[in-house]
From TrEMBL:
This is YolD-like family protein. It comes from Paenibacillus agri. InterPro entries: YolD.
Amino acid sequence: MGKKLEGNGLWESSRMMLPEHKNRIISDERETLRRIQPVLDEQKQEEIESTLALSLRSHVCVTVILFDPFENETVSGFVTSIHTHSREIKLQWAEEWKWIRVDQIVEAYIV
């Protein structure tokens, strides 16, 4: 006759759920799993800023860990410019570069 619904019934049965509904359920679950950006103390912020300045002055490679609501991103490269008024750095690696807000950085260290 028909397939018996097992487990969570309707939620796990691909025959009974429209793809749009499944995508919405998955996106709702991701929303609930979002993390909150940690608030860094003043000492940690100064440490990150001095590491970025050192990379700019000495042209040494730095690795920065950027906050993301779902999973942190790690990027390595050389700081080629610092804009203090907008609190952004320009990080360059190979032939690519990216502007990064200092507020996004949760960790920075020299490679």
